[in-house]
Amino acid sequence: MLRKKLFKAAAAGLAAMVCLSGCAASQKKEGTYLVTMVTDTGGINDQSFNQSSWEGLESFNQKTGADVRYIESKQASDFTTNMDRACDAYSDLVWGIGFSLADSLINIASYNPDIHFAIVDQSFEDTPMNVTGVTFRAEESSFLAGYVAGMSTKTDRVGYIGAMKTFVNDQFEYGFLAGVQFAAQERGVPIQVDEQFTESYSDVAKAKAIANKMYSSGCDIIYHSVGGAGYGAIESAKENKKYIIGVDSDQSYLAPDNVLTSALKNVNVAVEELSTKAMNGEDIGGKTFDFGLSDNGVGLPKENKNMDPEVYQKTMEVQERIINGEIDPPSTEETYKAWLSENGIQ
Amino acid sequence: MNKFTSLLRKPITGTIIAILMGFLCAAVILACAGYNPIHALSAMLQGIFGRPKYMANIIVKATPIILTGCSVAFAYKMGLFNIGAEGQYIFGALAACLTGITVNLSPWLEIPLILLAGMAAGALYGALAGWLKAKFNIHEVISGIMLNWIAMYFSNFITGMEAFHKPNTSGTFPINVSGFTTFFPNWKATEEAAQFMKDNPFLGDILRTDFNAGIIIAIALVLLSSYILYKTSKGYQLRAVGSNRYAAEFAGIDVKKNIIETMMFAGLLAGASGALAIMGNNPHAVLEIAAFEGNGLNGLSVAFIANGSPIGCIFSGLLFGGLLYGGQSLQYVVGAPTEIVNIMVGTIVFFVALKDIIPVIADKMEHRAATKKLVDQKEGASS
Q1: Between B3, B156, B283, which is nearest A103 by CB?
Q2: Among all residues of chain A, which has the CA nearest to that of B190?
Q3: Counting C-beta atoms within 10 Å of the first and last residue's C-beta, which end of chain B has fewer, N or C?
Q4: Do A206 and A73 share a domain, yes or no?
């Protein structure tokens, strides 16, 4: 008797589940514009570009009422399946956050010619018509960061922590190096730059160990471009009571007394702007958008309580000269060497 | 009543009830977090069974954890807790990847070669933990955990080497296409294929995923390990050591040798898992990682859901793959944060681990029924 009842209940439950799953709203509502972003393995709360991108989409949602969603990738093998899933829901625009997703994005884009794709930090030699690349002239903000470091250092020795040798990281590295040398030339003293790489965007412990070593060997300001791993470096700055320059977003809230400034990379601005353009039917496909100081894609925050106001003033002058095209910050090893010889720096 | 309790006593009933209880508990958690649980769970089911390609993706996700699960289950039959499956997986994947990059033969030779390389690397790494246990009596959990870290950083080190590192990425070069176990890898990129996929929605749906032949190899290896365990004298020795090490030793079984061999075979399975993941899944390369991807650690859950049975790992691996993959659609559709999804998956695993309680309940119910009957009879007799 009980068995029969149980069976009936189970059958009813199963039927209800099947029915519900049949009519579940996994697809977008009629008439709305759906934007989906696929994160890289950093996840949505990485305090870095994934989070910044999502903030851009949230603001886009508030302004336009478009439907925005995200999918987190946990492993590299998730990239393709997550991209694919975003297409299943009939997204109008799919964002891939980070160059790691480039191969998957191109692959999925070729299967879905009706859906538009955009990717942060990647440009393609031959961009498909339904793909948009977004790059940032991070060398411009890094140049400013380097200039600030060069002008503020007391020990004439600063540190740079990079992630790994990629074209994106090169922008940060050589922009910063050039900025330091520019300040050194202005001050007429040589400034030594210590450099080391974490080989990872998430290895907090390694970034901290590198920063500790740099501080103890005489650097008083460090610039990092290692995304989430940078926590470690900031932690080290706090413990050593030294200065650090944050990256991507204004990181001063992490260590109010130790963050000198931050080299902003306003991924949110780019994501929001391009999403809006795509929604309004502008043709953004087949090309790469490059964001720099002039369009607020990169820059320094306005509030820098640890920075000497005079240095800030001078930095803003340098910023103007970059926007004017008077100074052209280098973004690769070759352009850096050329830049040095052009400016007569050894 | 007797039939009901005997049904309850079957191991499979316990597992199914546990899974249902897990879902129920997850529904409560979702409701507490402010999400409509029915909507959420149906979104998850939709994400598992909604389209042929979802199921294909689940099989893809399940392939590596079926094998790492089997690796844990195999070692557990001998009383060894192979927490080092994660490291063996990493070593297998790394060896497979390096072989796939440097060697380029026809697929019929390339795929077995890569698989062998992965299995050999995993086996050696597993045997190392076994040797430490046999020779110096270092517990395999301690050495396993430490070896996992060594494997991870070693893998990152190799990945960063100039010879293998693909510029402007965080990983190695992909392996040669001849080593792909996905179906028709070259043809898939052509225009003709795109047209075919359009004309055949069902097949096209599956072809677009990373659906690959790895699952066949995985099932074959699971069957092989089940055969070794239950049909060979070696397996008999293993199980004897697992039941009672001292009795087995007294009976003339070389325990130390068996420990090394068992860990070697467990490592071989985990290494094969890594090799299959490299051959079957995009991006067909090893990437630098900052934390374990969890293929070996999920294998622990898979093995215990399967009650330590290698063949059971096939099913529990599919269940776990379904939860991992379906959980993502829950996040996507309902907007629940990943943490909630992970709590939900954890709850289900937790309840499955508690499934042994079901036969106990069955006993209690039977006992109560019997006493009631007795009381009824007595009352009937007295009136």
Answers
A1: B283
A2: A110
A3: C
A4: no
Q: How many CB pairs under 8 A join A and B?
A: 122
Nearest by CB: A79 against B42, B51, B282: B282
Min CA distance, B284 vs chain A (Å)?
9
Contacts of A78 in chain B (CB under 8 A): 328
- A128 located within any domain: yes
Question: B167 and B230 share a domain?
Answer: yes
Number of domains in chain B: 2
**CB of A100 closer than 8 Å to CB of A79:** yes
Give pLDDT tens digits along chain B (383 positions): 577 777 777 777 777 887 788 888 888 888 888 888 888 888 888 888 888 888 888 999 999 999 999 999 999 999 999 999 999 999 999 999 999 999 998 989 999 999 999 999 999 999 999 999 999 999 999 999 999 999 999 999 998 888 888 877 778 899 998 888 888 777 776 777 777 777 777 777 777 778 889 999 999 999 999 999 999 999 999 999 999 989 999 999 999 999 999 999 999 999 999 999 999 988 888 988 877 888 888 999 899 888 889 999 999 899 888 888 888 777 788 877 777 777 777 877 788 777 777 778 878 888 888 888 888 888 777 66
Close Cβ partners of B6 (under 8 Å, ≥ 6 residues apart): B362
Query: What are the Cα distances from residue A88, in Å, to A94, A105, B324?
Result: 11, 14, 18
Interface confidence, given as ipTM, is: 0.73
Inform me whether the C-beta atom of residue B47 falls under 8 Å from chain A C-beta atoms: yes
In a domain, B372, yes or no: yes
Strands of chain B (E only): list them: none
Test B45 with A166 for CB contact under 8 angstroms.
no
Q: Find the domain containing B10 and state its range.
A: 1-35+337-383
B187/B316 same-domain check: yes
What secondary structure letter does DSSP report for B294?
Answer: S
- Whether residues A85 and A145 share a domain: the answer is no
Q: How many CB atoms lie within 10 A of CB B118?
A: 32
Containing domain of residue A161, as a range?
138-265+298-342
Is there a single domain that holds both residue A91 and residue A193? Answer: no
Q: Are residues B117 and B15 part of one domain? A: no
Could you tell me if B177 lies within 8 Å of chain A, comparing CB atoms? no
Asked whether residue A179 falls in the same domain as residue A259, the answer is yes
Same domain, A159 and A188: yes
DSSP B190: S
H-type helices in chain A, by residue range?
A: 2-22, 49-64, 78-88, 102-111, 138-152, 167-187, 204-216, 230-240, 267-279, 309-324, 333-342
Question: Do B27 and B69 share a domain, yes or no?
Answer: no
pTM: 0.80
